[in-house]
Amino acid sequence: MNQLIVVAFDHLEDxxxxxxxxxxxxxxxxxxxxxxxxxERMPDGTAKVRNEVSGTTETGAVVGALVGGFxxxxxxxxxxxxxxVAGAAVGAALDKGVDPKFIxxxxxxxxxxxxxxxxxxxxxxxxxxxxxxxxxxxxxVQTTLDSETEEELRRALA
Length: 158
Prior knowledge:
- By secondary structure, this protein is an alpha+beta fold.
- The protein folds into two domains: 3-52 and 99-156, hypothetical protein tt1634 (3-Layer(aba) Sandwich); 56-93, no CATH class.
- The protein has helices spanning 14-27, 55-74, 76-93, 100-109, 126-133, 147-156, and strands at residues 3-9, 31-41, 47-51, 115-124, 138-143.
- Strands 3-2-4-1-5 form a five-stranded antiparallel sheet, sandwiched between helices.
- A hairpin with a 5-residue loop joins strand 2 and strand 3.
């Protein structure tokens, strides 16, 4: 089951730095993500949201390309159109990523100079993930982790 973790960091650049660390342990096979997003509230009050490609989007694109390729052989013009529609349908059906409305809600509560990291985690080595986030200061905004793991994460962010 996917786990949702949303952390608001005390510093603007911390969400990007934390995501970089998490991507390093992802490359080692110690964590995998369904979706991620970063929100930064700039010192002037404007907000930037960076959604990264999710596993859902990747799956939809692959299925769309395969369906389009098969239909393309039979009816070339129709193949491209059906492939795009199939990809979008699969992506929508599998949508397990970060809810854009929830991102907007958190974005509106961030004070200038802070950032937030949204993670939908498929699987993780909890020790590696905690180590990647230690050294940063922030608050857990929301999580679906069990209470013991959540408390360990809170201590890592203290």
